[in-house]
Prior knowledge:
- By secondary structure, the chain is an all-alpha fold.
- The protein is 55% helix and 0% strand.
- The protein has two domains: 10-55, no CATH class; 64-115.
- The longest helix is centred in the first third of the chain and has 14 residues, at 10-23.
Amino acid sequence: MDERTVYLFETTKGQLSRYIKIRGDVETTKLSISQDNKELNRQSIQTRLTKYGKEAMINKRVSPHTFRHTMAKRMIVSGVDAFSLMHLLGHIDITVTKRYVNIWGQDLEQKHKLHGALRGLKI
């Protein structure tokens, strides 16, 4: 897997520091560990997220990938350009990024209000 930079908000950094302090010293450099201080594999993380989603009564699929899709859509809706998002997601081709982000009518209308070609013109 290729390495890439992950940008974190200060809030996230703070929560990660808090978690690491609570977790204490362990024999792995991995962030996610089991109760017996062993590395969690991808399947274990997916299983836990599914469990926590059910406990929170979320009726949709809960997974790292759905978090990734949600983040991508929220970034586009908030104004991040598609090419920047493509690089943040680690995609080589914009068509892959395009599949990540489904923008519906209300989102498009909001974008048009913010960035429409005639916005700000005195006609």
